[in-house]
C-alpha cells in the first residue's frame, strides 16, 4: 500500500540521517583523539555492526589502525590506534582475551621466556654432566682466600648463575670448548712469537 511505502521511505531516510549524524560524531571524536598527544589508543563504547563499520571507515580515512574486540554482538567495541602505536600481536591477543594490555608486564614475560630458552639451549649444549666429585667452590679456594671470603665468592657465583645470559654471537659458536681453547692458545703463541 502507498502508506506502507511512505512509512518505509520515512524510516530509511531517518536511518540514513542517523548514520550521517553518527559519522559526523565519530569524525569529531577521531580528530580529538588524533590531537590528544598523550593518547596512543582509544577504546570506544560498544556499538552495533553498522556503527562499527562506520567508525572503522572514519579511522581508515584518518590514517589510523582500528580493530573490533568482544565476543558477543552486544559487547563488541572498536579500538583505534595511532599508526606509530600500532598494536603487536601480543597486545591484540590480550584484548581478544578481554584483558587490559600492560606493556611492562608483557616485556617482563618476553624476557623470562627468552631467558628460559637461553638456559635450555645452554643445558643442551653442555650435554649430560659426567659423574664426579661435587665441585664446591668454597672448599676449593678456602686455603687461598679464607673461609669468609670463599663464602662471599660462592654467593656471587650462585647469583650470577641465575642470569645465564649468553650473547647471541656465542650461540652460533659450534666449536667445542676444547677447540675454542686451542684456538685461543694458538693466537697467544703467535702474539708472543711476534713480540719476541
UniProtKB/TrEMBL annotation:
Q: What is the lineage of its organism?
A: Eukaryota, Metazoa, Chordata, Craniata, Vertebrata
Q: Which domain of life is it from?
A: Eukaryota
Quote the InterPro entries the UniProt record gives.
R3H_dom (IPR001374), R3H_dom_sf (IPR036867), R3H_sperm-antigen (IPR034068), SPAG7 (IPR017330)
Q: Where are the transmembrane segments?
A: none
Identify this protein by name: SPAG7 protein
Comp. bias intervals (Basic and acidic residues): 96-114
| Pfam families linked | R3H
> Region Disordered: start and end of each range?
96-139
Q: Which GO terms describe its molecular function?
A: nucleic acid binding
| All residue ranges annotated as the R3H domain in the record | 20-83
Amino acid at each position: 500500500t502507498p502508506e506502507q511505502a511512505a512509512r518505509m521511505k520515512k524510516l530509511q531516510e531517518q536511518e540514513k540521517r542517523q548514520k550521517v549524524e553518527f559519522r559526523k560524531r565519530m569524525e569529531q571524536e577521531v580528530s580529538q583523539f588524533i590531537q590528544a598527544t598523550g593518547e596512543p589508543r582509544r577504546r570506544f563504547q560498544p556499538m552495533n555492526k553498522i556503527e562499527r563499520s562506520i567508525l572503522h571507515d572514519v579511522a581508515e580515512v584518518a590514517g589510523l589502525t582500528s580493530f573490533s574486540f568482544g565476543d558477543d554482538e552486544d559487547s563488541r567495541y572498536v579500538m583505534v590506534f595511532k599508526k606509530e602505536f600500532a598494536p603487536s600481536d601480543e597486545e591484540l591477543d590480550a584484548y581478544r582475551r578481554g584483558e587490559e594490555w600492560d606493556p611492562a608486564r608483557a616485556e617482563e614475560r618476553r624476557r623470562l621466556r627468552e631467558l628460559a630458552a637461553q638456559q635450555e639451549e645452554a643445558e643442551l649444549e653442555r650435554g649430560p654432566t659426567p659423574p664426579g666429585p661435587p665441585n664446591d667452590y668454597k672448599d676449593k679456594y678456602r686455603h687461598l682466600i679464607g673461609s669468609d671470603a670463599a663464602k662471599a665468592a660462592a654467593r656471587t657465583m650462585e647469583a650470577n648463575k641465575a642470569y645465564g645470559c649468553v650473547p647471541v654471537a656465542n650461540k652460533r659458536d659450534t666449536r667445542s670448548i676444547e677447540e675454542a681453547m686451542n684456538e685461543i692458545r694458538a693466537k697467544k703463541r703467535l702474539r708472543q712469537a711476534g713480540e719476541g
